[in-house]
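pinging the channel bc i need a second pair of eyes. not urgent but kinda urgent?? the chain im working w is below, pasted from the shared doc
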Amino acid sequence: MSRLDSMLRRLTAQRDGLNWAADQIRGLSGDVLDIGLGNGRTYDHLRETLPDRRVRVIDRVLQCHPSCVPPEADFLQGEARPMLDQLADENSPIALAHYDLGFGVPERDIAEAAALSPAIAAVMTPGGIIVSGQPLVGFEELQGPADIPPGRYLFYRA
């Protein structure tokens, strides 16, 4: 499979997974959290898909497309752990989180996701959904949409 085809499959799985997760949280209260803003595509999709929810964002730097800059109050700039701790202190429960951090080194990415899992758990509302590109620990793993190949994206319930 070409790298282009692989990227298209990943982005389609991401979109379909986020749409599925948005449906799963319809009855839950809480905000949405995008952990890893990047260029802002996912943030833009989340704010469009869930227009009645506050979408918070965590990233080390703000370098997204100009049309995807979150409001200052919703952008938590810095390392993920202290930003998650800050959210936990604010007591603003998260109904849907998207985890998309990484260094591009699989072993390092997996280790970081595992280390951040307790901090993610601390901000989630009970029954909330986490969509992740990396394996997380301490959550109930869910099947997710049937059309997403196993392992392409991961789905969890808090």
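so The longest strand covers residues 124-132. and Residues 78 and 146 are 35 Å apart (CA to CA). — does that match what u expected or am i reading it wrong
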